[in-house]
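S.,

Sequence below, as promised.
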Amino acid sequence: MKVNVAQVRHSGGESVHYDLVEDFSTFDLGIEALSFQAPVHVQLQVNNTSRAMLVKGTIHTELKATCGRCLESFVYPLDLHYEDEWAFRTLATEDLLETALLLDKDEIDIKDRIFEQIVLALPMKFVCSEECHGLCPNCGVNRNLTPCNCGEGTVDPRLAALAKWQSND
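The prediction came back faster than expected:
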């Protein structure tokens, strides 16, 4: 995923749009139940401010994930807003040295930078839908597909003493 900024590098106020698509299936997300389902589509607008290049855009892709409640596979759409600041190392001020992506040449590969944004946007736990009922803790049936009455009226033995307790209102 390469971007060539040569046409905006030397003219302040210049702006260029990039529309990039790349297959990220070779990246290992480090999670066994997660993989890229579709290519990553990145749209960027690069604006030269004379001091640096401000980059704004979007990242779109789909991941195949496993629901943390019902353990079913599903497609997780990912739509992210992307903002970055790029500066050439020779022109960078002290504050840009700490915050911006430093460039040494006109063509840069942003694949790792985009992958980093995707990983940072992943939820701690994937859920197929807010209405997902998950698995029954007693019999293990998927409660989205089959109703289960295992837990009705059953009191956890550790809390049995509390069931006898009554309020003295």
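DSSP finds four helices and eight strands in the chain.

Coffee later?
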